[in-house]
Specification:
With about 325 residues, the protein is an alpha/beta fold. Helices cover about 50% and strands about 15% of the residues.
Amino acid sequence: MQYLDFERPIAELEGKITELKTLAEADPNLDINSEVERLGTRAGQMVADTYARLSPWQKVQVARHPERPHFLDYAKMLFDDFTPLAGDRAFGEDEAIIAGMARFRGRAVAFLGQERGNDTQSRLKHNFGMASPEGYRKAIRLFDLAGQFGLPVLSFIDTSGAFPGVTAEERGQAEAIARSIEAGLNVKSPFIATVIGEGGSGGAIAIAAADRVYMLEHSVYSVISPEGAASILWRDATKASEAATALKITAQDLIGLKLIDAIVPEPVGGAHRAPRQAIDAASDMIARGLTELDGKSPAELIKARRAKYLAIGRSL
């Protein structure tokens, strides 16, 4: 497993445990079970203590962990009868956003999610989860189809932001994001969004203007990356840690500000240590959200959704 900078003490302790187990395998006469158990208990407590007091910047690092489950990991576990939707019917296909129809716990749904990839080849294929305009126009297609057939929409957010390249700007990136937000606000069926890693800027909100917005415990959601904010505010990207604190980007910050609706608990040590457990927890939260939204008419859903977003930031 890849350890983050702040996990070095944990790495050293778990390394010692691995060494002892290797020695025991080489010499069956060695009795080190009690020592391994003692160190294992100590390591488990160290992990729990460390993750109970993560700083905002450390949460950013956890949200970006390369072994954290990505959208396709969720899709494989949550969906059956997976039927992809490709292309925007205007320019082409964008593999940063994967969309389609499927069954979630036996129920027909429309889904979309940002996929970052897990190795060099897949990261290049999915452009590190940074969508171009055609990705957001594909999302609009999905929103329209979901409303037409009364399918609940499930979205999964994990991106550092929309693709900032010249070609994306030439094809109308800002307009595509704005239209995607508008389409999300007007979906005529239940819409649940879950931030599973990093929710960055308009690239995230474009597929997250939902009835319910959930965040995994160690995910982040912000208008700009900490590095970007530090570069603008202090002209120094090394102050990203300070920017992360100032931006209020953690799930704990955002539920207090009423920008999200619930926090999905992660396994001790983060979703990368126990992906199945993390995905199961997200699945349970989504299922509860769908139950809460069942029975509401399209007009009721749209009215409540608009009221939800118009209320954000109001002090009176």
